[in-house]
Amino acid sequence: MLRILLLAVPLLCAGNDETLATALVQKHCLTCHNTTARMGGLVLDSREAALKGGKNGPALIPGNAAASPLVKLVREGKMPAGGPLLGADRDLLARWVNAGAPWSAKLTTNERKRTDLTWWSLQPLRQADPAATIDRYLIAAMAAKGLSPSPPADRRTLIRRVTFDLTGLPPTPEEFDAFLNDNSTTAYEHLVDRLLASPAYGERWGRHWMDVIRFGESHGYEQNHLRPNAWPFRDYVIRSFNEDKPYDRMILEHLAGDRIAPSDPNIEVGTGFLVAGPHDTVNNSNEAAKRQQRADDLDDMINATASAFLGLTVNCAKCHDHKFDPIQQADYYRMAALLNGARFADRELATADDKAKYKAAIAPLDRDIKEVAVHLDVIKKDAAPHLAEQREGIIANHRPAVNALFTEESFPTAEARFIRLRINATSTGGPAGLDEIEVWSGGSNIAVGAKAIATSTRKADDDTEAYSARHLTDGKFDQRWFAADARPVNIEIELPRQQAIQKVSWSRDRMGGFQGRFDGPIPEDYRLDLSLDGRDWKEVASSAGRIPARPDKLEQFLLLAVLNAQDRARYNKLRAQQTALQKRIAAVTKPPTAYIGRFEQPDTPIYLLKRGNVMDRGDIIAPASLTTLSQTLPAFTLDADAPEGERRLALARWIAHPKNPLTPRVMANRLWHYHFGHGIVDTPSDFGYNGGRPTHPELLDYLAERLIHYGWRLKPLHKEILMSAAYQQSSAFEETKARIDNDSRYLWRYPPRRLEAEAIRDAILATTGKLDRHMGGPGFHLFRYTVDNVATYYPLEKFAADTFRRSVYQTAARSVRSEMLGQYDCPDSSLPEPRRIITTTPLQALALLNNTFILDQAGYFAQRLEREAASPAVQVERAFQLAFGRPPEPNESAAALSLIRDHGLAAFCRALLNANEFVYVM
Amino acid sequence: MNRRTFLHDIVLGLPSIALQQLYAGGKVQPHHTPKAKRVLQIFCPGGASHLDLWDYKPELHKRSGQPMPGAAEVSFQGRNGNLMASPWKFVPRGKSGKMLTEMLPHLGALADEMAFIHSMTSRSNTHGPACVMMNTGFVFEGFPSAGAWTSYALGSENENLPAYVAIPDVRGIPPSGPANWTAGFLPAEHQGIAFNSSEPIQNLKRPHSISEQQEQATRDFLSVINQSHIAKHPGDTELAARVASYSLAARMQLSAPEVSDLGKESKATHDLYGTNDANPLLAAYARNCLLARRLIERNVRYVQLYCASRASGVDGLLNWDAHKTLKADYERHCPILDRPTAGLIHDMKARGLLKDTLVLWTSEFGRMPTHQEGTLGRDHNPDAFTAWMLGAGVKGGTSYGATDDFGRKAVENVSNVHQFWATVLHLLGLDHEKLSFYNNGINRRLTDVHGEVIRDILS
Predict the structure, then answer these.
(1) Closest Cα in chain A, distance from residue B202 (Å)
(2) What is the ipTM of this complex?
(3) Which residue in the set B76, B313, B440 is minimally distant from A467, CB to CB?
(4) Per DSSP, what are the bridge partners of residue B99?
(5) Residue ranges covered by each domain of chain B
(6) A7-22, pLDDT tens digit by residue?
(7) Which chain A residues contact residue B214 at CB under 8 A?
(8) Whole-model pTM?
């Protein structure tokens, strides 16, 4: 407000201009132009420094705003990098410089780095007390807060809790009974062992991991096409958890599986991690945009790697040094250089054996085809002089090739009411498309507005007329008809009345607007027929006599024309052999591919991008370890042109180094987070200044050490946590303790929580008896998928049995939240989601009450009860066991029976699936 | 029936905290006195041409057909030809005499209400990322949209309807689809609920197979088992909150169909919007406009209304992406936008809604002053585009910033998406630097680490 007032009255004393102008410099310039960052060699903390200037000379010329780069760049909007200044502020700067740029106070950057290499999470793990246990740490911390733990939970609650926790599924009534009837002291331990050994464990914890690493099965961005073969990576994650693969090994496989086990598909597939994120597939002609797309790809990989394994927000150092953590801007680009060989693409995923088999099967064919090619080349070479001589003549003796811009056929005047274009083949073999067909009678196009139909037309779901044949006769070249596929297609035009016709013409890109990018499938083999009645047709023209449109076909055509009969026969025979061989090669089953990234030695090095701007390249940055851990861990630097695979391997080894304090801390904390609903650090992918502080730092180090002690295997660490009294205690609420620690971060009770989206859906299927436990393979879709340039996903309204598999096998299309799962906070995999936010909303209630899925499942549940229990009373009993793992209370039973009597079993089942008790774990 | 269930819950003693948790109450105390209480954002996806709608460039008209000074440029789709004048005349509108295209006569008549920002710039030249940039402040997907931030900050004033509604066009969803109204990393309750006058909220209706009596009996039984569960777990307010969410759902089931029922509007109103127009696309958009007013009237905090949709196999067909045939494309799109939108604004004004509602018109980027080589269309131009605001707190009849002589680049008071949202939040009583939410290492903002309030357009 004050500023506006001052600007409105420019005659106010100049001292204010000084204050305001230097404040602007401090706010907008000093971030980059300070004594540490020295962007462009320029420091703007004092008048002297500004006059001294940087690489491009002085920033200020007192008294001459017009000649002062600072004023000029600001006026042009090129500075500040963070976004242009308002006009009034620009005027102020100019006025201040013209007034001599008075500047008495030295400026200091107010964005002091908050942390340095002494930050807690960067320090080596503390040695644990040999007598330490999880409970000891917890009780000590509680005591300090005046808290104490709760008594053990009852056994029904405990088995339900631990079963959902480890498998994402409810215990069956039989499992309840077995546990409740097992009075041995080892009953619970056996239960934990059984659950950790269950394949459902990998499905549950694999899903957690896929949250952390933003695994999605479509490209995201505008086109968002599916990645139909991304699922092998999902299966790999599940398998890795079930096999209890050591975590340090998993890191190597995620970043460099292809290097540590080339041709072992079970391990190579791990690199799917690098490309599990979004990737913009839109073609861009603009250079800056192309660079930006690649920079965004790298940014995604850097963010995924640093946040998942290290709990570091390296991505915050893209444009400048990290504002809070000791991560240099160069560190960001060091990591980019380490990952620069990875591309978002499919890669062959096969055993050495399969690859060898394929090679072996192809080799003789390959040899033969090469031999044929040699013979063909000889003929070509011999004919070359003749061809050169006769080329022009042959072309002149033929009709021109068809092209995208315009093709016409003239014929002796004929009476017709119906015109038919039979397209047998296009120049490239793709589906035909035309923007217009004109029918000429005495110099005028009489087809405008005439009825046009095609035997095949592409359809867009949300705009069925988009590619309609009516565009062929609309008199305009803006919209096009497209055939649905590449098979032969007929177009028929019906004129309002019979007329005399001399010519028909058509085009694919009449305006030439596609600059040649649209020259693809032009009708090349076609016939043109006329008819008076639409039944009896007479061919009046065809593509015969035209030279081919595609250069390679043209060369072959010319060659054949100059060969003598004998050579032509030989040539044709060889060509036939070649085609046959090509077919045989194509028929050999190729080794499978998967969306696990393609690796190639980068042709462009990594530059430090000033302010993250892809068009403003600084020094070349060599692949190297982050300086962030330079005091804890041996550092490495590779040559700028080191083999790209070496780089990824070096990064993986550095992350999984036994002395790296972040890697085990971050993973141990993730386990804790999912077991208790919150981590010891409550920001599981951020162990920096902006993240949470550990509630129990010693315990965290203890757990991290245990992880390493167990050989980086997770299952023993799970078990140690699950065997703690803290995990087995009751969740009963106590007001006095809640006043001290409402969220039970100190674990004075087990924190109750709502199930995640997938667990709710899977529990419904398990309860109704419909859950299909088939593991692995291509996922099922909870959407109808259509592609018309961009992909559109429509939520399913009917659910067939192939969707009754566990939710982890649902094809996770990016930014598409399937309604059931999405409403219940299932992430859309656009960004990593190391901690799901749990919400409670009316739309969730509507989804669980009214979605077809629920109604169907309520029906199946009712059928199951009818099968498994004879009378309504027993059915109610069974239903409570299945849904809640307990018998009903008398009042619940009575209410249930009355509901069943009046409205049937399915209504009762629908209510149970909506109950709090069904979706909460206590 | 639903009222009974709700009262039933109250009688059973739901702690008030449970209801508070659910009413999606604002998480932020306003930082200063707000001018606007709610927002209507009209979005024309596809890169609506500033040069053919809002930004008059006499020099472009004069030198049409001549090469643009400077090096030839390769933009999104490729090479560009010479300068190309707009196919339409620009005419003075309103008392301010603002020069606007003749193609938008109805909107033009509102020129004195509008504050134009002619110097908008974006960070992407591609529809998907640029749409998401315009709506979330970031080119990457996964960040909360402005509507979600508003819902998060200010909460709902009508718990029977979603706080944030997105109204996609009948022609489909915009580029990048739901990422334009996502809650990103904000709690899911703040995501835009997508529905329009032809597609209702998903799962809203009680299924046909279930009678009203059965629904009620089922809910009553659900209440019995929930209460018995709550009784065993006293103190866990989340449980009561979830019960309350079912009551809210029941109320939404009554309110949402009511708001979508356009039958109660007068014929005069229907005519004003054009809901019965012979052009089915115009009529469909008009109905969405009418729906938007009814939502705003019922205190929905943020309504995002789309006019046009995604990129199809034909540029400029389904949206404003006029690469090849600008004239034909805009002759299709302009009438659809013009009368219904103007009708909506007139109607809101007549009902006093503009006093505390902010209306925004946005697109993701502008277009080139040159024609695309070999076409009569324009390629993408992220270096210059126009947005406007009107209504609460906005100084009508103003124009802020300017592009160069041809409209190729913003050169005067260059502004951007972050300044735009900083200004919108300011009008809502919010300081864009203070409205933040922690995610992955940083307290994220709608304005990233940028933004300045554009004070010149404030009343």
Answers:
(1) 8
(2) 0.82
(3) B313
(4) B92
(5) 32-213+266-457
(6) 333 334 456 788 888 8
(7) 902-903, 907
(8) 0.83
